[in-house]
Structures are given as structure tokens and as C-alpha cells.
Amino acid sequence: MYSAKRRFRLFRDPAFSPTPPEPPFDNPTLTLGPAVSVVAQSPFAGGGNSYSFIQSTSSYLTTPGSDDRAVGTGDFIIEWFSYQSTLPLFQRIFTIGDFPTMRIGVSIETGTFYYWAGNAFRYSSFSATTTNTWYHWAVVRSSGVTRVYRNGVLRGTQFADTNNITDTTTPLAIGNTNTFATNAAFIGYLTNFRWVKGLAVYTGNFTVPTGPLTATAAANPYGGSNTVAIESGFTKLLLNP
Question: What is the CATH number of the domain that holds 145?
């Protein structure tokens, strides 16, 4: 018996063009001080790594000055996860410039959060930070108003902020001040440090990220609300060791 074979041809819709995968995010040049190491410590249930800092002049991470961090008077967000082993005075999370002329910077000193901008102290809030606990922090400026969030909740009071951050030459120091002082060294673990220029990612209290941060992201990737999408080009620095 003759059995006809049916042949099928696959036609491609000329209007269909698959979106190519986004290229991997490239950080600027990073320099780790001799006392900094990458360890298997993470705020996420799935595990991960962080940078380990100790009280030492050799404990720092730096990247050269850049227009990427000259946020002007525009919107931005700087966020990170940190775990402090001790809470002495002067621990710097990050700085561009040195006290008392920091272009922008944050320190958490004996449990109080301090924010500096435009070469002057701008904000403080007793954070009730304790040792040996992971916290997510975010400094967000939107339309000339800066807010500080801890674990997704606004801390203290928002404040008017039109400080013009224009420095393109001073390096960014993470975990220490620019002059690498022992008493300014952060002590503990830090990970998922993200700097976004030109976009206020968080618009109100939000759900804390439960996985590693990415250079681009959909709106509200961890549920909840008040987190806008990050499109390509806005993230300028992303440290996921």
C-alpha cells in the first residue's frame, strides 16, 4: 500500500526579530586593598559572596574618579548590603573625598547613619543598627529630595537636596575614606553595592531584594511596590563579588 509522506516547511515571520541578550555589565577598574578578601558570606538564602573588611589602613576598595558618579543635582540611588562586626566611630561605607570636604559619602558610627554631600554633613538618623546582622541600605534622591531607607523602610525624615555633585577625578573609596585611615575602616562584610545615576529606583517603602542585584531589572522584581524598572545604561557600578 502506498503511503504518502507529508512534508512540512517552517516559515519565518519576517517581522519577528529576537531580542539579543544584553551584554554582561562591565565595572570600572577596581582595586582591592591587601586586607580585603572575598568570602562566602551573604544576606541571601541561596548563598553568595561578600567583601570582608577589617580595621586596617590596607582595608579598602577603590575605583577611579568618573563622570559616572558625578550625579550633579539629578536623581540617583546608592545601595548596598552590609554586616558590621563592631560599631566604633568613623566607619565609612563609601566616600568621594575626605572629611570634612566629602563630595558624597556615608558612615555608620556607633549605630548612627550619617550622609554627606556637597562637602558638608546633610543628614543623620539613629539607625538602631546592631552587630552581626545583615542590613540593606539605600540613599535615594528624586526630584531634589533625598531619602534614606533601611531594609526597605524610610529612616528619619526626607530632606531637600540640591547639592551639585560634579567631581569626576576623585576616586570612590568603599569600606574606608580616601586616605585609608585605620579608624575610618569599615569592619565586617559588604556586598551588592550598586550605584545608579539618573534614576530614583525606589519611590517609597519597598520589598528588600532577596537575591543578587543586577544592572538592569524589571519593576518590583521582588514583589511589593515602589520599585521602578532599571533600563540599560543607568547602573554605573555593581559589586557582586
Answer: 2.60.120.200
